[in-house]
Amino acid sequence: MSAKESNRRDLLVLGAGQLGMAVLRALAPRAAERRQSVTVVVSPQTVSSSRPGDIESLGILQALGVEVIGFDLAGDAAALQALFERYRTVVNCTGFVAGPGTQLKITRAALDAEVERYFPWQFGVDYDVVGQGSGQPVFDEQYDVRQLLRAQQQTEWVIISTGMFTSFLFEPAFDVVNLAARTVHGLGTWDTRVTVTTPEDIGRLTTEILLAEPRIANEVVYVAGDTISYGELAEVVERVTGYAFEKTLWSLDKLRADLALAPDDVMTRYRAAFALGDGMWWDKANTFNAKHGIETVDVAHYLQHLLEA
């Protein structure tokens, strides 16, 4: 090991949003047991923020023993590389908030910094199956990130495929399940399937995958809270709520027509993409969590907790 490598700190997590905090809550105590350091990158504004939510998050991170640094990930690529050169493992939980091209930039910086291990922001669908041209530009970028990682051998990478966040099924703007309006919209067909996982489960499973022995490297790892068809989803919603819901199927032709009328609308893009089915789901029985006997929250239990909150 070179002097440069021996001076590196252990774990750097990018982002302390919904997923980043879930990862840190699970990872920080386990890293502390191994006497490994954990650092998180947040926006410079967050470090000195007076917003109650930011103050609460910073307090939680301090209690977890996580070092917090402010850094603008949308800024200079050379500065990003210099930051990464101080760490052995980088876990990217930033999402798409920094705009198009950011995930490729972060990935290039991690590779140029020769970090030992990189967990990219791929907490989503199977971009190998989706490929390019899905109608969702961020999906195209995610596919390109995979090609970039596979084209090199210096840095180990681990991709964790999670499906969509479970909560997104119940997001009114996405309009698959609208609890207030008591409507369910199927995307593509009622048999079209989707894999979903909660951020909390993703945080726990990411920690298990990161710390697994023998070490997982250069592999796509699949996890799932649930894999469910839109028809099954409608049945679960009615059973758990105890109410009848108006059920409407949005065909792929209808969703593509919607997309033609509003090509820049993010939710219209997502509905058209998830209606395709392929790459949006995998069998829960074959996932990392199922194989290791790790229980996860399915849609029915998620909805029950949501209604009780």
UniProtKB/TrEMBL annotation:
Keywords noted in UniProt: NADP, Oxidoreductase
GO molecular function, one term: oxidoreductase activity
InterPro entries: NAD(P)-bd_dom_sf, NmrA-like, NmrA/Isoflavone_reductase-like, PCBER-like
Record-annotated NmrA-like domain positions: 11-254
Keyword NADP on entry: yes
UniProt KW NADP keyword: yes
UniProt name for this protein: Aromatic alcohol reductase
Species of provenance: Bordetella genomosp. 2
